[in-house]
Amino acid sequence: MDRRPDTQDHGRVKRRKTIDSRYSADSDDDGGVKLGNFGQPAEVKPKKEDLDAKLSQSSKGTDQLAEETSKKKRKKEEDEDADLASNPYLAQQYEGPPKKKGLDPRANPYLAHRYEEPVEDEGSYNGYSNGYGRPANRMDGVSNASSLARFPRHKSTAAMAKKAEDGPNNPFSGQPLSSQYFNILKTRRNLPVHQQRDEFLRMYQNSQFLVFVGETGSGKTTQIPQFVLFDDQPQIQRKLVACTQPRRVAAMSVAQRVANEMDVTLGDEVGYNIRFEDVTSQKTILKYMTDGMLLREAMNDNNLNRYSTIILDEAHERTLATDTLMGLLKEVAQRRPDLKIVIMSATLDAQKFQSYFNDAPLLAVPGRTHPVEIFYTPEPERDYVEASLRTVLQIHASEPEGDILLFLTGEEEIEDACRKIRLEADEMIREADAGPLTVYPLYGTLPPNQQQKIFDPAPPASKKGGRPGRKCIVSTNIAETSLTIDGIVYVVDPGFSKQKIYNPRIRVESLLVSPISKASAQQRAGRAGRTRPGKCFRLYTEGAFKKELIETTYPEVLRSNLSSTVLDLKKLGIDDLVHFDLMDPPAPETLMRALEELNYLACLDDDGNLTALGKLASEFPLDPTLAVMLISSPEFYCSNEVLSLTALLSVPQVFVRPASARKRADEMKSLFAHPDGDHLTMLNVYHAFKGPEAQANPKQWCHDHFVSLRALQSADNVRMQLKRIMETQEIELVSVPFEDKNYYTNIRRALVAGFFMQVAMKEGNSKTYVTVKDNQNVILHPSTVLQTESDWLLYNEFVLTTKNYIRTVTTVKPEWLMDIAPTYYDITTFGKGPVKNALQRTIDKVRRKEATKGGRR
């Protein structure tokens, strides 16, 4: 007998009720039969009490003394735990595991730190357990002779810190300091921020909030967190210092740099945490992290009790997560007067930050820069990429030694530019006796080992007496402020960057290549004067700079879809969204669109309250659309496949299409093509990658098939972590075998469960489609594998360029849309037009089919 639930005659609301009831907190706790696999009875396991009884029967006659000793030890630990729990700021860390059956936070990666198992004592600073399963006083591993052990907390001075830094032992690990440490220390002390260390400490010690403005090259990102470590001593409080970054690349590279400066191993005293990658340990006292990761931690620890100081770096970038975090920290600060918050910015728009943070004190430190000569083009450039490459090569051919920094907009553009520069540079060496030129890309999804290459020295002259070599770094706007690269003398600025743009009226969010602001242009130019006088080549006119560029970039909160942010705020317990204290409140229409979308996804009920499904969705570091699709996948018997697809949609493009081999790349792509669209094609690539042939030599296989090894390995890692969250939240993985006739149909239906608001219908006999409800005319992106034209398509991305494209598409059926999302596809909510007419025809067709079935009975 088929136990699958009947999904054909039930709408989305009924299905959601089934999901919500499974994951509600009031789960069955009496040991009865639990429902598994969405309606199938799970195996009934014997109760723990029965097993314990059997074990006790078999162990009669064992040593009673051991049992009594164990009881005494447990009693002592419980008493000591009770004492620790009396501290209001440590109480949460010493709560016992939950008594109630259901979602166990010990298995949740965001809560695991509260329930860590005891670690074995492996000597100084390696296994510092106090028997409670939590780190003991982290000073235990430090020699009693350490000057840091005698520091008065929040009363230290620069002279005291300098004495501790001068060794001979590491003040944090207790190990002898290396010669490399002392070499780096000399360089650090020449940074401008060190001249005002005492002034910073006075302000930090006497205020809960502090606004710190440090120009490029001042050393704020690497030095201020270390200043805080010496004064705050989080290890004594069993806490950490957090320093947030808006970009993953910055969090990783800065953490590595600071670990080197502190003479510790990355992941020990200094670590980093970005989405799907946590390089920290019990030893960690300084954690660099993306602002989004700290926001996720706040969902499970509203008071951020793990942290004694939180530093928001690059606050001027005004990302969505940064703005949300600033509003949240203002509320947390009221509940936690012991928490210190430092806001760091590279621009002088400090007054706004000061007034926002209750008239916080301001400390400004000048950068260490040299004069920079600015050059403009006499006429606008028609092709900024081509002009950029030409300028780089001219600099290499005619300018004195010094490295080059070129700003471009995205990964594909950067990689293509790097390839062309290398080819031209090789030609110049052969024909014009130019020096060697090493080219490095830099963008957010680049692996850490490749990111570090940008700090390598320039290549030497290729022959004795020859012209010296130089390096050229081709970067996104991450190199504006987030990273400082010594040796840059020439900056090439085309004046563009990719920016997120959202139109709430047509519900379209897209990355657009847009002109930068004047503030960004000034930051870019400043990169040329780090080590000596430099030059900045702006590939736009001086008139355009003065009249066309806006003063500062608009904050992301004013130009983004806020669905994820609203879901996060709801999980944080913030229901009054209108009065939540954002520095720049978004337009009411944008907020209403976000609430409406979450309601359609069944993450919020009609009153705007978080549903059980919404609570589950907020546990995933994903867009709500992807989270709901993943959570719903067991309904459609394709959990493993949707898990893989979600991971693939969370990483950069899988397919590689170099300009020199486009035809061959397209041929390879066609080998994986699925007739129903791009999502299933991506899945075919992933399955092939996990097969024995590819795993025998993954690098070669990816090269031969024109797919990105980096993207697939990243997807593998993301998939593993998403699977762990599903298991933690007790979402069962249910999939039919590949041979099942509905294998691919199930996956397409599951895609509808998340992407039903991103659907387009074909217009007559033309190649144009129209988006459902928003009525935007679009065409298929050239990268699609779809060979046959379909009347209805689901799309992953709306791309705005010279034309409106939909990218990563899959064919769907209109009856699926009305079955899975009946509220959204309620025909009475559609205006007159082809979409409504098509949906009405679908309803009539389904009714005739049902009537025919009824007649046969």
From TrEMBL:
Gene3D superfamilies recorded: 1.20.120.1080, P-loop containing nucleotide triphosphate hydrolases (3.40.50.300)
Enzyme Commission numbers on file: 3.6.4.13
GO CC annotation, single: post-mRNA release spliceosomal complex
GO BP field: spliceosomal complex disassembly
Composition bias type Basic and acidic residues, residue spans: 1-11, 44-53
Domain Helicase ATP-binding stretches: 201-366
Start and end residues of each stretch annotated as Disordered: 1-107
Domain of life: Eukaryota
One GO molecular-function entry: RNA binding
Keyword field: ATP-binding, Helicase, Hydrolase, mRNA processing, mRNA splicing, Nucleotide-binding, Nucleus
Coiled coil: none
PANTHER family from the UniProt entry: ATP-DEPENDENT RNA HELICASE, ATP-DEPENDENT RNA HELICASE DHX15 HOMOLOG
Function in brief: Pre-mRNA processing factor involved in disassembly of spliceosomes after the release of mature mRNA.
Family: Belongs to the DEAD box helicase family. DEAH subfamily. DDX15/PRP43 sub-subfamily.
Protein name per the record: RNA helicase
Native source organism of the sequence: Imshaugia aleurites
Gene name as annotated: PRP43
